Amino acid sequence: MDERRELIVGNWKMHATHLEAIQKVQKLSYRLRPEDFARVEVVVAPAFTALRAAQLVIETDHLLIRLGAQNVHWEDEGAFTGEVSAPMLAKLNVSHVIVGHSERRAMFGETDAVVNRKVKAVARHGMHPILCVGETLEQRESGSTEEVVVGMVREGLKGVTAEVVEAAAIAYEPVWAIGTGKNADPDDAGSVAELIRDTVRSRLGEAAADGVRVLYGGSVNPGNIRAFMAKRHIDGALVGGASLDPDVFAAVVRYWI
Q: Which CATH superfamily is domain 6-253 in?
């Protein structure tokens, strides 16, 4: 199979005004070198209000950083006050959209069925979904990690073509590790990443399993990223707090230095 290009995504969550986003993107670009992008696809996902500002910086300065979004609605348009649609994101040249993050599931009641509709909407408009899956601490302690993660992958990708999944990403984010400073053991994370890839293979075939990039997320930082990236089935990271500081995020991206 062809070597999967690594993917490291900065999820800024509800941080940074559009002016701060401009500064963060510029500073990040100064700290990365062209050769870094040959190895790693780098995506930043600002808040919706900062997407246009970030897009203009990336395109005006001809930066190699890609633009991501943190969420999307499943319908293309309609009476959905406060929501943002996939066509709107596509017009901003968004390349990747985070779907089904645990914060969306826990705080806003997103079900697997809703997440699946969002995955399809993202793909329908030519962008790449980053499907988030992961177990809670209670589920982990009860020994149901495998059941939970496999179920989320299967339901999230139901009715999605192999071609879409081959170009997509699935982020394993154990809920208990997000924003807590605790991270999964790299061996455990690697095993779950392999499980995710095997699940894709069983549902959609070899090409999809070989192409899909499996990311780890959950308190990723410059001190632990190398251990995760050493695992065969982990192709990158979905980074939260550490992505807000361009110096720190650049160190995550350039983890091999």
A: Aldolase class I (3.20.20.70)
